[in-house]
């Protein structure tokens, strides 16, 4: 039997390749950063060729460095930064423009026009999404309307659109497809019928010929070109990174939730086999489809905060109060508290449940005694406070109280942040042994499809607690702090003009 599943994790700032063994443990990994392009304030782009070059580079490197033969890889799982929009020429395989990244806000005004035209309700009903520039649809429309000749070429059937999963799979195999979890992030996909929605395509003037075929998240979808690895390997798992992390955290039953602390923070809760509409401006999204049809599909509720680890990066690169992200914990714990300072990390507006693109980062309560340690502490606390708003919206929507929150992502290695998160949520926070849960989720989806793993029960049994953080804050202190946080949030809102 083949020995490994190879997961490709294409994130916002880096591409990773990880080989997983039967126990669901990482055997070897490789990672490469790639270029971020900021052409104007609020715009964020990637060169899709850089994305592919970095991903192919780590794919080859992990096999070379570990000495694992491609013939020992049972299948490939692909997981990716979501919503980021790639448009390429079917004949040459060349992108027609830079990819527009999920963080890009260039279409905020157009989205407001759609809201004014009363389109938000129909969009939420069909797609589960809050009408926002975050999703792919308005990014694709922008490319068609602004890249010279693109619309005419699209109408002649010469171009292909895809999220990053589609782009990577096209480069590896020539197939043009995506899975239900990624399709659900385009704002063009009906999450009830699991098909592209013709009304939304018409509303946004998007030719259907651009779109990839939609396949289940687990299932042999394509095979790699033989010249990529010397042998052809099945591509058998595909999922957006946050959905993959939810699967990798084995949140396989309704009511189970995880939070990933990367650049941003993404909390997702399994709500079962039916999409649950949110009354609190959270997103309803496809988690994964283990086969065709909605009875094989798990749905999730999602709340995102756009800034988490990025606040730590800012303290390192922007104001230079730390030299390395790992120093933030020692600095923050060098003071007993934040000295009354509150930090709302709304650098890119506020995500769920506020959806305020005009909010901005706010540091309030500065006194003569405020020092850099207080700023570090307030920043970590601010990352955690944002999740209180998201979790209370989620518990209200789902009608349940969470029994524990599973956590992962680069900033989840920060023990102070995790303890404060447990305290302020009043919910136990649990960090697993394997924290590469995004890649692991993609590996599980691929491995289930080719019989490398047999069942979801086997996967759930592999999940192991690394460390558990129990809430230890008195209720009155928590409420006092949350009240102060709410006041700070109000001051951060509606700031940018
Ligand atoms: N010890 C730490 N404490 C807090 N944040 C950290 C720590 N180490 C890394 N980070 C943050 O984690 C983020 C990287 O996590 P990762 O999961 O790789 O993110 P992404 O997938 O979004 O690129 C960075 O923003 C970094 O600032
Ligand atoms: O690349 P990440 O890990 O920051 O994830 C980005 C999300 O998929 C955006 O929706």
Bin the strand percentage.
15-25%
Q: Name the poorly predicted regions.
A: none
Radius of gyration from CA coordinates: 22 Å
Q: Total number of helical segments?
A: 17
CA(first)-CA(last) distance = 60 Å
Overall pLDDT level: 95
**What does the largest sheet look like?**
7 strands, mixed
* Helix content class: 25-40%
Oligomeric state = single chain
DSSP strand tally: 23
Strand order of the largest sheet: 17-18-16-15-21-22-23
Looking at the structure, what is the overall shape? globular
Alpha-beta classification: alpha+beta
In this entry the ligands are: adenosine-5'-diphosphate, SN-glycerol-3-phosphate
Function: Key enzyme in the regulation of glycerol uptake and metabolism. Catalyzes the phosphorylation of glycerol to yield sn-glycerol 3-phosphate.
Family: Belongs to the FGGY kinase family.
EC number: 2.7.1.30
Domain Carbohydrate kinase FGGY C-terminal: 258-449
């Amino acid at each position: 039997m083949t020995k490994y599943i190879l997961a490709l994790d294409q994130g916002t700032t880096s591409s990773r390749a990880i080989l997983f063994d039967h126990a669901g443990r990482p055997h070897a990994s490789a990672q490469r950063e790639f270029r971020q392009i900021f052409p104007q304030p609020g715009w964020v782009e990637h060169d899709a060729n850089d994305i592919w070059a970095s991903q192919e580079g780590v794919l080859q490197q992990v096999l070379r460095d570990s000495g694992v033969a491609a013939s020992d890889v049972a299948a490939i799982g692909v997981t990716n930064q979501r919503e980021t929009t790639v448009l390429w020429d079917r004949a040459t395989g060349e992108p027609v423009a830079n990819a527009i990244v999920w963080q890009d806000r260039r279409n905020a005004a157009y989205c407001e026009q759609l809201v004014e035209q009363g389109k938000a309700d129909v969009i939420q009903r069909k797609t589960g999404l809050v009408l926002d520039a975050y999703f792919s649809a308005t990014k694709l429309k922008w490319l068609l309307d602004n890249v010279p000749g693109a619309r005419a070429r699209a109408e002649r059937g010469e171009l292909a659109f895809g999220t990053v999963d589609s782009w990577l799979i096209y480069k590896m195999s020539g197939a043009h497809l995506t899975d239900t979890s990624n399709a659900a992030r385009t704002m063009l996909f009906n999450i009830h019928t699991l098909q592209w929605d013709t009304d939304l395509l018409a509303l946004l003037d998007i030719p259907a010929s651009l779109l990839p075929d939609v396949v289940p998240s687990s299932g042999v979808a394509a095979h790699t070109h033989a010249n990529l690895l010397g042998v052809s390997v099945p591509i058998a798992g595909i999922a957006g990174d946050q959905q993959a992390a939810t699967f990798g955290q084995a949140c396989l039953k309704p009511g189970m939730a995880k939070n990933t602390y990367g650049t941003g923070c993404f909390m997702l809760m399994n709500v079962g086999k039916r999409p649950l509409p949110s009354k609190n401006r959270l997103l309803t999204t496809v988690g994964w489809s283990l086969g065709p049809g909605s009875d094989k599909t798990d749905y999730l509720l999602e709340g995102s905060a756009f800034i988490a680890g990025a606040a730590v990066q800012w303290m390192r690169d922007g104001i230079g109060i730390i030299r390395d992200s790992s120093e933030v914990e020692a600095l923050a714990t060098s003071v007993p508290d934040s000295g009354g300072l509150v930090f709302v990390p709304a650098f890119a507006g506020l995500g769920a449940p506020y959806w305020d693109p005009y909010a901005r980062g706010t540091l309030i309560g500065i006194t003569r005694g405020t020092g850099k340690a207080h700023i570090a502490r307030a920043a970590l606390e601010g990352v955690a406070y944002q999740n209180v708003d998201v979790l209370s919206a989620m518990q209200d929507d789902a009608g349940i109280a969470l029994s524990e929150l599973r956590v992962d992502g680069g900033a989840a290695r920060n023990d102070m942040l995790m303890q404060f998160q447990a305290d302020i949520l009043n919910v136990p926070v649990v960090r697993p042994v394997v924290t590469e849960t995004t890649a692991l989720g993609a590996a599980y989806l691929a491995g289930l499809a080719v019989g490398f793993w047999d069942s979801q029960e086997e996967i759930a049994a592999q999940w192991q607690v690394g460390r558990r953080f129990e809430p230890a804050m008195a209720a009155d202190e928590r409420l006092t702090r949350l009240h102060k946080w709410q006041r700070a949030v109000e001051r951060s809102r509606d700031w940018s003009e």
